[in-house]
Amino acid sequence: MKTTTAILAAALGLALQAILPAPVLAGEGIRPAGPIGGTDIRQAILPPGPGLYGVGVGVNGRFPDYLTEDGHLDSDGQFIVGGIGLLAVYPFELFGGRLASSIFMSGGQTCFRIKPMPDSCSDGMGDPYADVLMWSRHFPSRTASPAGNPFLHYGLDTLVGLGLSIPAGVYDRHSPVNNGSNVYDIAPNFALTYTTPSVLGPALGDATEFSARVFYNYYTRNDANEYKSGDLISADFAMTQRKGAWQFGLTGTGFVQIEDDEIDGVPVPGGNRAKMLQLGPIVSHDFMAGGRPWNVTVKGLFYVDGQNAAAPNVVVLRIGTKLF
C-alpha cells in the first residue's frame, strides 16, 4: 500500500506542475521549478531598470484526464490558485550583465479523484519558489530597434539562474493531493530570448520573439516516506508577435523525467517516469498608469501529450508593475 500510494502521489504531483511550477498539486510527488503560472514571454529579459517589482497571479483549471503509459484512467479534478511575487533588480552589473533575485508565494485549493473514489483535496499554502540569483545580458542586433517603445529591443538576451523550491507548503503524508511537496527542488536554469523584426511582415507586428527557459530539477528525498523522485528536465517556451504595446502568439510548457523514482533507495516498479506537454495561446499588454509601467498577461494551456500524470487544462492571469 505504501508503494502504491506513493507512486500515485508522485504522478499526481507532476500533473499540474508543468504549467504551475509554483506549488499546487503534490503528495509524495514533485513539480518542475519556476514562478507561479510558469514563464513564457521575455524569459531572459529583466525589467528595464533597477528596483523592486511586484506581480499577482491567478490560475484556474481542471483535470479532465489521467494519462498512463498504456492509455488513461477515468478521473477528474479542479483547482484554483492565487499568488504574489517580488523581483529585485540590483543597481549594478557583473560581466556586462544585470543581476536579480525573486520570491513567489501561492495558496489555493486543489481536488482530484480517480473514479469511483471520492475527491481528495488540499487547501492552503504551497511551497515558495525563489530565483536565488539571475544574471541577464542583452546582445543587441545590428538592426535599429523601433523608436518610441522602451520595452522592445532587437537582439539576443541570455539568462542564467539558480532556482529553489522550499518545502513550506501544506503537506499530509497520508493524502495523494497536497499543496506542498515536503522536498527541496534545486533547479539551475538558463533562458534565451531572441527578438527580430517581424518575420510575418510589418502589418502583423513590429517584431517576432522566440523565448525559452530550461530547468534541471534535482529533488531531495521525502523524509516522511523515503520516496525520492527522479530528476527531470522542464522547459517553458513561447513564439510571439509584438505590435506596439501588445504581444500575442503561442506558448507552451513541458517536462521529461530522466531518472526512476525510488522508495527506500530501491527503484519503484516500472520507474514511474512522467512526461507532459501543454500548448496554448498567450496575449500580453504593456501600459503606463499612475506613473508606473504595468503589464497584464493572459494565457491558456491545454494538454497535448503525457504519461503517468493527471492532464491539466488551465487559464492564467498575471498582472505586474514596478513598486519602487
Task: Write the SSE topology.
Blueprint: H1 2-15, E1 51-67, E2 72-73, E3 75-94, E4 97-114, E5 120-125, E6 129-140, E7 155-165, E8 185-197, E9 207-219, E10 227-228, E11 232-243, E12 246-257, E13 262-263, E14 266-267, E15 275-289, E16 292-307, E17 309-322
Antiparallel strand pairs: 1-2, 1-3, 1-17, 3-4, 4-5, 4-6, 6-7, 7-8, 8-9, 9-11, 10-13, 11-12, 12-15, 13-14, 15-16, 16-17
InterPro entries: FApF (IPR025737)
Pfam family, one: Phenol_MetA_deg
Give a short summary of the structure.
4% of the residues lie in helices and 58% in strands.
Task: Describe the structure using short key phrases.
twelve-stranded antiparallel barrel; 324 residues; three-stranded antiparallel beta sheet; single chain; Porin; 58% strand; mainly beta
Residue-averaged pLDDT, rounded? Answer: 89
* Unreliable residue runs: 1-28
State the helical fraction: under 10%
Q: How would you sum up the major sheet?
A: 12 strands, antiparallel, barrel
Annotated CATH homologous superfamily: monomeric porin ompg
Number of helices: 1
**For the largest beta sheet, what order do the strands appear in spatially?**
1-3-4-6-7-8-9-11-12-15-16-17
Order of helices and strands: HEEEEEEEEEEEEEEEEE
Verbal overview:
By secondary structure, the chain is mainly β. The chain has a single domain (about 50-320), classed as Porin, CATH 2.40.160.40. The chain has one helix and 17 strands. The strands form two sheets. The protein has a twelve-stranded antiparallel β-barrel. It has a three-stranded antiparallel beta sheet with strand order 10-13-14, with no helix packed on it. The longest helix is centred in the first third of the chain and has 14 residues, at about 1-15. The chain is globular, with a radius of gyration of 20 Å. The relative contact order is 0.21. Mean pLDDT is about 90; it is low at about 1-30. InterPro entries: FApF. It holds the Pfam family Phenol_MetA_deg.
